[in-house]
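>> Question from a student workshop board

For tomorrow's exercise we were told to take the sequence and the ligand below, predict the bound structure, and bring the output to class. My setup keeps failing. Could a helper post the expected result so I can at least see what it should look like? The ligand is adenosine-5'-triphosphate.
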Amino acid sequence: MPASQNLSRVLIADDQPDVREALRLLLKGESYAIQTVDSPAAVLAALQDRDFDAILIDLNYTRDTTSGAEGIDLLSRIQAVDSRLPVIVMTAWGNVEIAVEAMRRGARDFIQKPWENERLLSILRNQVDLSRALQNADRLEAENRLLRVRGRPTLIAESKAMEPVLDLISRVGPSEANILITGEHGTGKEVVAQTLHAFSARASKPMVTVNTGGLPEGTFESELFGHVKGAFTDARTDRIGRFELADGSTLFLDEIANVPLKQQAKLLRVLEAGEMERVGSSKTRKIDVRVLSATNADLNVEVSQGRFRADLLFRLNTIELHIPPLRERKEDIPLLATHFLRGYATRYRKPLAHFDAAALKLMSEHLWPGNVRELDHAIERAVLVGRDDVLHASDLGLAGNRSGPDASIEEMSLEEVDCLLIRKTMARHADNISQAAEALGLSRSALYRRIRKYGL
Ligand SMILES: Nc1ncnc2c1ncn2[C@@H]1O[C@H](COP(=O)(O)OP(=O)(O)OP(=O)(O)O)[C@@H](O)[C@H]1O
Ligand SMILES: [Mg+2]
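>> Workshop helper replied:
Here is what the output should look like for this input. Compare the format with yours to find the bug.
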């Protein structure tokens, strides 16, 4: 084929021969040069050989036919080879969650099988055109711009219930006071911490965040205070800790209730003295940090039950800032939803959509146990699955809230059972991650990751 030099090259990967054949036939009349392969390894080999304009990959191959793990893994390998190559993923019907996960990890679009020919062609055409039009430099510039916008905290709060919160933020933000931010999961504690930092005289330096709830046991001290070479077996070089990194700036201690008592004592000593030593070193360093902390637990209860030190609480909560759950500030829902919609429509290059009346009603009636994060994820999903520029209630994926108390286990997916079990165990242990993790036989960080994943 003499003209093939100028054709757009598309690579197709699927382990099923009939799928490869159907796609080949479909694309044959469309002036693409097509190459098909049947495994992730063959994809990587093909990418070594030549450049492509787009690649269409199945998410499930023979090793494991439903989880999508192989496809997600392949996606990141492709990105490592060529981050600019548009990847379109194919999933089975009803497997939207995996498609959403792939999009979060950088897939440009997705197609559900069995596909509609027209839709597949238009998605492919868009991606190929886009990749041809955008020079590498243009894309980098565009992505940088996006990142810069995302880096700035946006705090949307126009409801009555948020008035006292905003008022307090503007009054204590510029001060040096240590502030404890409380509120359920996903209410915006981190956004509030960033806003407080942005208001402060320390704003020219970046805020340093430590997810104390997610730190594996045993690394706490070295993460926070750093270590010197030889302090323990794995300490091959000196390492600077978060406290030193935050010197002159703000340190944000997230999930503070999950710090074990022994480490609480160390934290307290550093906060009281304003100085610390790296692990394995006797040299004392002065540090100047303002500490913001956050928790979804009631620290007074934790103190009364002996799980949190009263003197540490006293250090942390010079001011306490409580963020109400989303269900108590429903006026903010349409504003937040529109904000997320704009962001995702841009990020995923979808036509800017709006909500229909039923979607708005459903959002205002839903109780949002995962608060703003749950709303954020619901909108991301809706943008990805929505077929036109109006988002419908069904796109939100809220109706199938089957992990409620009445759902029968037989009807639930493994993930839903997992989620339900974690929710119940957390409730039984008053949201104490350490205790719930022990009861579930998981490490704290493994439990923490699941809580994040399910937006609990
Ligand atoms: N008022 C708000 N305006 C805009 N975006 C918000 C607001 N509140 C929360 N968000 C967004 O919702 C998501 C969850 O917020 P954030 O991570 O701050 O919650 P959190 O309270 O720290 O949750 P967790 O307890 O699970 O750590 C983030 O993507 C954040 O940007
Ligand atoms: Mg948080």
